[in-house]
Prior knowledge:
There is one protein chain. It is globular, with a radius of gyration of 28 Å. Helix 1 runs antiparallel to helix 2 and helix 13 packs across helix 15. Strands 11-12-13-14-15-16-17 form a 7-stranded parallel beta sheet. A 5-stranded mixed beta sheet has the order 2-4-7-6-5, with helices on both faces. A 3-stranded antiparallel beta sheet has the order 8-9-10. The termini are far apart. The chain folds into 4 domains: 9-158, DNA polymerase, domain 1, CATH 1.10.150.110; 164-255, Beta Polymerase, domain 2 (2-Layer Sandwich), CATH 3.30.460; 261-339, DNA polymerase, thumb domain (Beta Polymerase, domain 3, 2-Layer Sandwich); 349-588, Metal-dependent hydrolases (TIM Barrel, Alpha-Beta Barrel). It is α/β, with parallel strands linked by helices. The protein contains 24 helices and 17 strands. The longest helix has 21 residues, at 401-421. One calcium ion binds at residues 195, 206, 208, 251.
Amino acid sequence: MTPPSRLTNTEVAAQLRLIADMLQIKGENRFRVLAFKNAAESIEHLGQDLYSLHDAGELTAIPHVGKGIAADISQLLETGQIDFLEQLKREVPLGVVEMLKVPDLGPKKAARLWQELGITSIAALKAAGEAQQLRTLKGFGAKSEQKILQGIALLEKRKDERTPLGVARPTALQLIHELRSVLPAEALTRIEVAGSVRRWQETVGDLDILAISAQPETVMAAFQALPQVVDVAVSGVTKSRVRLINDMECDLRVVEARHWGAALQYFTGSKEHNVAMRELAQKLGWRLNEYGLTATGRGQDPAGMERFFETEEALYAFLGLAWIPPEMREDRGEVALAQARQLPRLLTSTDILGELHGHSTWSDGKNTIAEMAEAARRRGYRYWSVCDHSVGLGITGGVDAERLNQQAVEIQQLNARWRAEGVDFRLLHGIEVEVLADGALGLPDEVLAQLDVVVASIHSSLRQDRETITARCLQAVRNPHVDILGHPTGRLLGRRPPSALDVEQVLRACAEAGTVVEINAHPSRLDLNDVYARRAVELGCKLAINTDAHSPADMDMMPYGVAVARRAWLTPDDVINTRPVEALLGAKA
Ligand code: DGT
Ligand code: CA
Ligand code: CA
Ligand code: ZN
């Protein structure tokens, strides 16, 4: 048997929660239920790898994990399942557990709905509610029936919400990784993510995965059996649609090798790009679908003749096009450019030579300057700019004139060491200075004047009206000491809307003042977004892509920022941190 792929702590916690829910529906002792819930809670918040604890025989050192639960966890890590949970699954339908998601529907009610009315899914619950059958249950009035229907409506609305790419992409890649590890190589020739995730769209409706296999049934069975899958909505030989434990839905399609090119093109989308592609094909006498091209008879080839493509490149080439990077496939003129062989040379991650905005323990970063620099150097960067927050933001630490001087000493020492060792790496000394509510900066000009890089950002009073916050931002970007405008709109994807800022006006001012605009690469921000970044370049701005790292791991987020730039059609020349450090500092002077 293939060993199960590694589970994350969150996934292990989810399995324990599932046990707790099932026990609750069965009406078991509440302390037993609580034991599983508490264990799940501590595992989710455990800052440690479960596998190494397991290997060391130390699972019981985790708070709330006793011998019994530790044994269940061991079994899960070793075999990919827990016997006890498998047994529970045979007793309690997953659909009934599902019903607990309806607000105000507790385990006791769910159990009665199941046992007395035979309801085993939310869909069935909704139908029964609409048919006014719930009120027939003893103790259930018209009012509680109404409440359940309202709860279901709320749940459906939540389901319509799109997932941030920073959650969706790792989810898709994990599914692919797990399928690769559970399936024998001969059952899975190829597997790739398609849809909006492949295009790196900032939010994602559902996941789309595409595979080539000579054994589609085997692939589908393995897919539906993945531990993250809570519900199978569609189950066919070539297509499955499932719902995952994190509430995302995922489509998997299995195709033949000869259809791969057209299928990947079709399921990558966007729909708009596909419409443009179909129109082009039509003009050339072909009908384009997810299998390939069929001659319409209006071109040179006889009607009904088929063409298949093993690669996307071959399909695009057959239609007279250069291969178009997925990030550009939004029908914004890319098809005409590909036809004219004039696609831009898009920025790639390897073009990035360093970062200009990151934090250390001098403000809210988790690592020292030396640790951050070492991490940057190890990933091949040639420079990294320490930009800690100016004081007074209500966070611990922060820098003022005095602390900046102390910081400078530390930075000089580190730089001197690398110079002596002949290492091509340089720390830049910068700051992320707060743009105060009235547009003044958090530190005086003469302090800012001594630094290599000044990033000005807004973290407070983000709800000012459009006029006020725009004026505030204009004042900051026009300050000659400000080099970069950090995360301009302040949005947090899925959590906080952008400020009311008049971005167009601010971008014009940046172009005029020579202030660089940031694409904050952190997937919770992606700020500027693709549309504004495109506009910035049109207006003559330069951009900087920074992860705003607070720990070395944050630096891994750079591809998200590069993807925003690619979706904005940016070339290396549009982005200043593709330049060597001398050119960078020279341009600033
Ligand atoms: P999403 O899921 O809303 O984030 O966006 P997509 O682009 O992943 O859309 P999705 O999952 O509905 O479909 C995946 C791809 O399949 C889509 O990008 C293009 C293709 N596709 C799906 N439905 C249609 C359609 O009705 N017409 C065309 N031309 N393409 C379609
Ligand atoms: Ca999709
Ligand atoms: Ca889909
Ligand atoms: Zn920052």
